[in-house]
Each structure stands twice: as structure tokens, then as C-alpha cells.
Design goal:
49% helix; Rossmann fold; 7-stranded mixed β-sheet; alpha/beta; 290 residues; globular; 2 domains
């Protein structure tokens, strides 16, 4: 997915929000924003937006000296999600279709995205979770359920902290879970999930956990570790959570289903869904199944 002109204001907004998030110093905020504005004047618009996001946050870490500026925010939303699990597990266990409810909740959890909303609140998260219980899934849900039943090796690419606890609810439905490998980011970037977040969610005790070796807010295969790339190509089903993974992998030929909440008008239009939709989108390589 290419960067569009409509992405530019959002990139600038994200840069400013990020600068204000990690520092109250107006001089530092200005330094970062000037750097990003100069970068945007020469950026390659054929690249997906996460390439720019990666540069923004590398610069932010360089200026502040903080290797994980969103650490506290990630911990907060991990604990928030953890507190919701007992009630949601009851809903799933009583549902006529537990897999469907778990998928809706996992996708709704994608609202915990500081790249889109740096002022996210618990109220917004709870509203998204409640709405997801009745909101339809847009795309190819039937194709995904069939792929779940047929797959022998599943690579589940996580997106954000907090959200990853809701991912666990979906992974718990994918019996046998021994066929699942969970992938997280290799280095801190925004509030994206890392190995520490997977461990907090207890996923390291359920499935194999690897990281992708990259600090991009998406999956840029050329930058990923050999271990991750090997798992990517060995999998006969890849679940890619979140908009960043959709932006970076939507043109990759692989057996991918993208699961995300459409929070951006550009991405919603590219996916052919409405803004706010819960999306299950099959990659083109899977043809017309489902």
C-alpha cells in the first residue's frame, strides 16, 4: 500500500502527538517536527506509511534518549485489557459461536493504537469492545474459519500492547494451539507489542513466541530477522493484526488474512469497507475461497 497525499497530515499529527507524549519541552517538540517536515518533502510516496513512522520514532528516541517512550502507556493498557478478560471469557464460553465472538473482540482490541489516537481513553476501549459484540465482520469470515480448520502452521502477527491480551482469546480458540507461532515487534515502536507484552499476556506459555527483529510499526519483510522470515514462508496461514501490518503486507503474495479495525479513511477505502468496520480481509493469493 502506497503513501497517499491524505496520509501527510496524519503523519505530521502523529509526529507532534508523539513529541508531546514524551516531552513537555517545546524546543524538543519543534526539533522533531522540523525534522519530520524536512523528511516529508523528499519522502518516497510509493512506500507504505509505516516506513515514515519508523523514521519518526527513531528520531524521537534519538532526541530523548528514551528507548521505549510508550512503556508506561503499554503497561496501562495491558492491565486494562487484563481486567476485562474474565467477563469476556464468560461471554465467549456461553456464545453459540465462541470463535466468532473471540475474533470480534480481538479485532475490536485494535482500537488500542497510539499511532491513530494518542489520547485514547478507557471509555473508548470499552465502547469498542461492547459495540463489537453485535457489529458484523466485514470481508471473508467464512474463508477464515475454513482456513483455521485446515491450517497446519499458523503465524499470528500481533500489533499492539493491550490488544495482545484480546488476541490471546482468539488464539485460545485455535486448537491445537501447538500449530500457532506468535510474532511481535523486535524493538519498541509506539505502543506496539514486544516480547515483554506477550509474556504479560501469558502467550509465551501457550504458543511459540518470536519477534520480527524490526522497529517498524508494521512488517517490512526486508528488515525482518531470518527467523521471522523463515516462519513467514513456512506458514500456510498468516494472521496479520492491525493497520500497520495491512499497510506493509497488503501487496505481499502470501496466505494472509488481515484482521483490523478500520480507523483511517485511506485504509478503509483501500480495503473497501466503512470507517470503523471490523475487518477480516483475505490476501489476493488466497483467490476466491470463502
Amino acid at each position: 500500500m502506497h503513501t497517499t497525499l491524505d496520509c501527510i497530515p496524519c503523519i505530521v499529527r502523529q509526529a507532534l502527538e508523539s513529541a508531546r507524549f514524551v516531552s513537555k519541552d517545546p524546543a524538543l517538540q519543534e526539533q522533531l517536527l522540523r525534522h519530520i517536515l524536512a523528511l516529508l518533502a523528499h519522502m518516497d510516496m510509493t512506500l507504505p506509511p509505516p516506513y515514515v513512522g519508523q523514521i519518526i520514532h527513531r528520531e524521537l528516541r534519538r532526541i530523548t534518549g528514551d528507548v521505549d517512550p510508550y512503556l508506561e502507556a503499554k503497561a496501562h493498557f495491558n492491565h486494562l485489557a487484563q481486567g476485562r478478560l474474565p467477563f469476556i471469557r464468560q461471554l465467549i464460553s456461553k456464545a453459540p459461536d465462541p470463535l466468532l465472538v473471540a475474533a470480534r473482540i480481538a479485532i475490536a482490541g485494535n482500537i488500542i493504537d497510539f499511532g491513530v489516537d494518542g489520547a485514547l481513553t478507557e471509555v473508548k476501549v470499552d465502547a469498542a469492545l461492547e459495540e463489537a459484540l453485535t457489529q458484523p465482520l466485514e470481508g471473508q469470515w467464512e474463508g477464515l474459519t475454513r482456513a483455521f480448520s485446515e491450517a497446519k502452521r499458523i503465524l499470528y502477527i500481533a500489533d499492539n500492547a493491550g490488544e495482545i491480551l484480546f488476541d490471546r482469546l482468539l488464539i485460545e480458540q485455535l486448537h491445537p494451539m501447538e500449530r500457532v507461532t506468535l510474532a511481535v515487534r523486535g524493538w519498541p515502536i509506539l505502543n506496539d507489542a514486544t516480547r515483554e507484552d506477550a509474556a504479560f499476556a501469558g502467550l509465551d506459555r501457550l504458543v511459540q513466541v518470536i519477534d520480527n527483529g524490526s522497529d517498524a510499526p508494521g512488517t517490512i519483510l526486508a528488515e525482518c530477522s531470518l527467523e521471522f522470515v523463515r516462519e513467514f514462508h513456512r506458514a500456510d496461514l498468516i494472521i496479520a493484526k492491525g493497520q500497520g501490518n495491512f499497510e506493509t503486507l497488503s501487496d505481499v503474495t502470501a496466505p494472509i488474512f488481515f484482521l483490523f479495525k478500520a480507523k483511517c479513511p485511506v485504509i478503509a477505502a483501500h480495503a473497501g469497507v466503512g470507517l470503523g468496520a471490523l475487518v477480516v480481509l483475505r490476501s489476493k493469493v488466497l483467490g476466491k475461497m470463502g
